[in-house]
Amino acid sequence: MLFIQNNPYGGLLLCSFFAIFQSIYAEVGKLVCFYDAKSFVREGPAQMSLAELEPALQFCNFLVYGYAGIDAETYKINSLDPSLTNDRQHYRHITALRQKYPHVRFLLSVGGDRDVDSEGVADSDKYLRLLEQPEHRKSFQASVLTELNNHGFDGIDLAWQFPKNRSKFHQGVIKRVWGTIRGWFKQPSVDDKSEEHRQQFATLLAELQSDLRRAGQLLTVSMLPHVSAELFIDVPTVLSNVDFVNLGTYDFQTPERDPEVADLPTPLYAMYDRDPSHNVQHQVQYWLNRTSAISAHKLHVGVTSYGRAWNMTRRSGITGYPPIPAANGAAPPGRQTVTSGLLSWPEICDLLQQQPQEREVPHLRKVGDPTKRFGIYAYRAADDRDENGLWVGYEDPMTAAIKAAFVQAQGLGGVAFHDLSMDDFRGQCAGEKFPILRSIKFKL
Fold first, then answer.
1. 133-148 residue pLDDT tens
2. How far is it, in rounded angstroms, from Cα 348 to Cα 394?
3. Structure pTM?
4. Domain range spanning residue 290?
5. For the chain, how far is it from start to end, CA to CA, in angstroms?
6. Looking at the domain assignment, is residue 259 inside a domain?
């Protein structure tokens, strides 16, 4: 500051400093809200109308509409929701909300593990094929511009379906030992051409960014859980070509990846005797270590509004303390989301509050986290018949606020919230609509 005072250009330097500071400050504390369009056509209490979506928009800076896919023959954007009689019309209904909420930017997301093959598995092959051929990239880019312009979106979000890291639970003892020995010499890759795909993805972003910037539109990337940034992302180049990146800092542990061991799905910091990369802090630090501090505002931490649930057995014990051994796969679907192993926040809240006389089985017992480092869970031990055991690790308004505080402390851009339709959008739990979303926004 003394240098500025004694410098004839001190006033100009000071103005420049504050201009840079204000520019960076304007990019932090953002809330990116993901909206799964399938919630519009769900049956029963999980169906979310546009009128029920609207109250959330007062808190969101961006609304990411998911999800579009890619046609395997033309490599153009296509619709993944034939159940919506006219998906494009639904696009227009969403972007028309800009008239009431002009502060919100509306993005269309591509991929998101929703673009599946005939067996219902996320199809990464065509996403890699698109990267490999310049003509495929050009076809995709042209369709992006057409789709955004025809339907009023402010930009595109690429939730690119790269191959996922392999889960380890299927291996027997002998295979695990052999895998460890083999790993001393060479780590098997989920993609033998990962280095090429890494560079090709960066090229795609550079090409898209050039077109979108001329149109005043945004380009963002959403990392999916268990996709290796080390394999597929040239961090400095990617950050230089996008407006921001939403990190897939959730679902580290799920019943699909490990049906036999229940554990906290989204710890904030590393836990003892766990995979050291399976926590929010590690994922964030990986990106921060590979970019300048001035780019930290382009990173958004993913926070969820749901929990991951396993069946407990009598061999799982009675304490509920994770990790839970001898789990028996994904828990039964909830009454609202109707998805095995996944419970929305209102479904969890209902299981925590129910009275014994309301159902044949007792309510879940919640166990908090006084350290504010790992997360919370709730459980019900299996009964004498080895039935009704349930364990769920989840996010609630308090833990979501803790992660928002972490975002602030790290100087990051904000939070990417997954998903509005899994929050308590009707206020059935405590009377307040979107309680998790609110807690994040107020902390930011």
1. 999 999 999 999 999 9
2. 8
3. 0.90
4. 28-304+396-443
5. 30
6. yes
